[in-house]
């Protein structure tokens, strides 16, 4: 039998190997452990970046009752046409909303949103983001501008892509 990892994706579409069902080269079986590392990709428009303080962008949907999402990291890519202006307006990954528990270290905006060319940064998890059940159970992960003002400037052609790595855990609550 050939090594599955070397087969073209089209060969794997609809194939079942053991308990795993493949679609587009990805395992989609419900038999997979829920705690495996997953990746979610979100594209943020210029208009969304300009409103990021008031309206955080959902990176990972809420996992459901009795579950909590563990933020592992996020790679943030700025496909730049024109810079944003910012006055110490950093970003963070947090649970749920503009006031939710912050789960990432501060994401430095200076040198990123105002970069002279396309830019990349990596968000890392906050050390020990302690929170009670109501702050973290069944909450989405969002990207938020934590500064005092919205970003300015930009260009309609700007796109920010965020690839978030995360895991979902049952809480047992």
Key words describing this protein structure:
mainly beta; 2 domains; 173 residues; 3-stranded antiparallel sheet
> What is the share of helical residues?
under 10%
Strand content: 35-45%
The number of strands is 12
* Mean pLDDT across residues: 88
Instruction: Order the strands across the largest sheet as they lie in space.
Output: 4-12-6-9
Structural class: mainly beta
Query: Major sheet: size, sense and barrel closure?
Result: 4 strands, antiparallel
Distance between the termini: 44 Å
Low-confidence stretches: none
Total discrete domains: 2
Shape: globular
Order of helices and strands: HEEEEHEEEEEHEEE
Describe the structure.
It is a single chain. Strand 1 (16-17) and strand 2 (20-23) form a beta hairpin. The model has no long low-confidence stretch (mean pLDDT 88). The protein has 3 helices and 12 strands. It folds into 2 domains: 1-32, no CATH class; 33-170. It has helices at residues 9-12, 46-50, 133-136; strands at 16-17, 20-23, 26-27, 38-45, 57-60, 67-79, 84-85, 91-95, 119-123, 141-145, 152-153, 159-170. Helix content is 8%, strand content 37%.
Question: In terms of topology, how is this protein built?
Answer:
Blueprint: H1 9-12, E1 16-17, E2 20-23, E3 26-27, E4 38-45, H2 46-50, E5 57-60, E6 67-79, E7 84-85, E8 91-95, E9 119-123, H3 133-136, E10 141-145, E11 152-153, E12 159-170
Characterize this entry briefly:
The protein is mostly beta strands and 173 residues long. Helix content is 8%, strand content 37%.
